[in-house]
């Protein structure tokens, strides 16, 4: 008797047929300081300066977006670089923008949010994406020789 191997392919609920569905423009604003832009930076038709324009689909994952940002930002390719994602969207009750964190990824390390899609994050076409990139040296010192355990102790405070 011969055995039959059955392969079951899991289909995501929010999967998009990328051959048939046209991508949309996602406006991404990247900050390399480790901090997000302020929501007020988006008010009155203004946007931050550092913009990437990405054509994508609602089933795009945070890991996929991380890869696209790393293509144009060589400093972000270092292992341990952290990407914090936030959606920026208009408040329908008052004329301001709101910001909501949706997840984070880290270069070279598997993270729980890697497979989170834009749909799962309740992204609406027209929202902006704000990504705060934190270099590996700034947060992941991990007791390496020559580095302090507490990065904040060595930051100079403005007076």
Task: Characterise this structure.
- The protein has helices at 62-72, 136-139, and strands spanning 24-31, 51-56, 82-90, 97-106, 128-134.
- A 5-stranded mixed β-sheet has the order 2-1-5-3-4.
- With 159 residues, it is mainly beta.
- It is globular and about 40 Å long.
- Helix content is 9%, strand content 25%.
Features:
159 residues, 5-stranded mixed β-sheet
Question: What is the residue-averaged pLDDT?
Answer: 83
Helix-and-strand structural type: mainly beta
**How many distinct helices?**
2
Task: Tell me the distance between the termini.
Answer: 81 Å
**Integer-rounded radius of gyration:** 19 Å
Strand-residue proportion: 25-35%
- Give the beta-strand count: 5
Low-confidence stretches: 6-11, 143-159
Give the proportion of residues in helices: under 10%
State the shape.
globular
Determine the oligomeric state from the structure.
single chain
The H/E string reads: EEHEEEH
Largest beta sheet: strand ordering:
2-1-5-3-4
Main β-sheet description: 5 strands, mixed
Concise structural overview:
With 159 residues, the protein is mainly beta. Helix content is 9%, strand content 25%.
List the helices and strands and how they pair.
Elements: E1 24-31, E2 51-56, H1 62-72, E3 82-90, E4 97-106, E5 128-134, H2 136-139
Parallel strand pairs: 1-5
Antiparallel strand pairs: 1-2, 3-4, 3-5
